Amino acid sequence: MRKKVRSGGLVALLMLVPGSGGAAQEVEPQAGEVAPPVPDGSEAPSSPDASGDSFASALEEEGFASERQASTELLGWARLAPTYGFPRSAPSGEPPGLRTPHDRWTERSTLYLRFLHRRGDGWSFAASGALDHRVLWRPQTPPAGQEAGDSWRYQLEPRLQEFYLGLSGSSLSVTLGQQRIAWGRNEVLAINDVVNPQDLRDPLLVPEELRYKPVIAARVDLLMGSSALQLIAIPFFQPATFDFYGSNWALVQDAAPAAYRAVLGQAGDSPQGSALFSPDRGVSASLSQAAAGLRFSWRLGSVELNHYYHLGFDFTPRWRVDEAQLVGLLDPALQEDPAARALAFNRFAESVSVSYQRRHHVGFSAVGEAGPFILYGEGAYESRKVFITQALSTAVHPFLTGLAGIEYQRDFDQVVDFALSYGRILPRNGEPPPLLWNERDSLGAALTVRWGLTEEFSLEGQGGVGFVPLGVSGRLGVRWKREHLSCTAGALLLAGETFSYGGYYRANQGLFLDLRYVL
After folding, report:
1. Distance between CA atoms of 178 and 176, rounded to whole angstroms?
2. What does each C-alpha distance from 324 to 59, 276, 303, 329 come to in angstroms?
3. What's the pTM?
4. Whose CA is closest to 412, among 53, 2, 4, 45?
5. Which residues partner with 177 through β-bridges?
6. Which of 29, 82, 207, 418 pairs with 167 at a CA distance of 20 to 30 A?
């Protein structure tokens, strides 16, 4: 089976088409994971940046053999990524006070480091982390008679990523600690990648290594000839990271209900307003939100098959809002009485509930080869999936989704990957209300292209097209690379129906630059 080379820093698109929870791909086994033998005798990739098509593909560089000597690696990169957003047009017929905040200029500087120590007697230790610094600027138009506020904001965020210990033998490995466990095949349509939550605050330009949040888990990998079994246990639940209001990719945009925009606009950046719909509100520190899963991989002729089961929680929170109290906060009398307004806001905040839905996830994937092409398919069923409505409430229904893809790869700089996705909501207790980014039957596609133009320049593009609902969102750029330094310049493209993904976030069209030095 041909091995798929990683996208080398391409940022996969999140939440593009129906059923996609974010970008994912099969990554190389972690240190501490036994590298399974290749059943058909095909050659394993020698690059540490390579990844197999499935769990049962071999990756010798990350495997453990008892006779290997100890080795220590320190890898990483430094990144400078400014983005310019095009000026957006004001919604027709609405007062300026209902407009949501939008940063015209952002700059994200990141330092990422990964330490890996391996010993020949079968154990390893890995730790990785990042230091993020963001600079954000937005034009401000204060009310008449008031001075303009400070439009510059600065954010510093340290992040611990991996932190695990691996123990391995000839056919069994155990990995304990904070780790990334990737399931599924497609880089954009990640319908089976349900173990790790995502960082959704910058979905088009988030670095690949920081797209998913590692979780504390116990992981066991067992080889059984040409098949493999993986068991995982996750004691604590971690939610996805997203902004409800106040940032470019926040859930509340100009197409959101006016009551949300007005109330949250009045709360501004206050801690009380920021915490109102925080995803952390529904998280328990006990073991009551523990999760578990298994993955079984085997081979049927030249086709590799993977089966997944995960008992856990949907990463989209379910919230309930007292709409009468929400609208009541817009009473003009409260604007003239700060004390009464604060009391009314506190009552409304107490009425907001945030929770997470436990669900069963069952999925499969199949990967085969036909000449220069790789053919693959995936399917998934979720017993309870949370959907966000156009009214910014939530609805819970079973969800069935599948995709079929084809990839052509001649070498690292000659890659084209195309996939079609179909999702169907199975209504429970009546038809779902009008939804964001989904309809009862949704159809979309995703495309990844990396094509070398010269030895130093390549064309890179990745994105999704929704046919139902109609929308497009993605990125297109030109990359220059020489030794340790690379630079990618391009545009963010978002458009479509108002409540499609691209249409809902169309204000985020702009230009980007990604300057990176690999250590």
Report:
1. 7
2. 58, 17, 56, 9
3. 0.84
4. 4
5. 164, 217
6. 207
